[in-house]
Design brief:
It is built from 3 helices and no strands.
Length: 91
């Protein structure tokens, strides 16, 4: 994990220090999920013919990220719509 990527602000209270620690942990976890989504999306788009199983796995990962609040729900729906459109056009 790259802990240096995110800076911890100087906290004035104990609760603010705890909140900063929690935010750091969440940011690291969320960035790995977003990176994984981006990688999956690139491999799905780079293929000459769309792979149904790969696209299905990507849609599932997008749904999970949206459910946990890592990406916005509308952004997830937009990505899924584009994937389904590409899948339908390839038939």
């Amino acid at each position: 994990m790259q802990a240096r990527k995110f800076l911890i602000p100087m906290a004035n209270t104990k609760s603010a220090a705890k909140r900063a620690r929690q935010t750091l942990k969440r940011s690291l976890r969320n960035s790995s999920v977003v990176t994984r989504l981006r990688t999956m999306q690139k491999t799905a788009q780079a293929a000459q013919t769309p792979n149904r199983e790969r696209i299905r796995a990507l849609i599932s990962a997008i749904d999970k990220a949206a459910k946990r609040g890592i990406i916005h729900g509308n952004a997830a729906n937009r990505r899924k719509a584009r994937l389904n459109k590409a899948l339908a056009g390839a038939k």
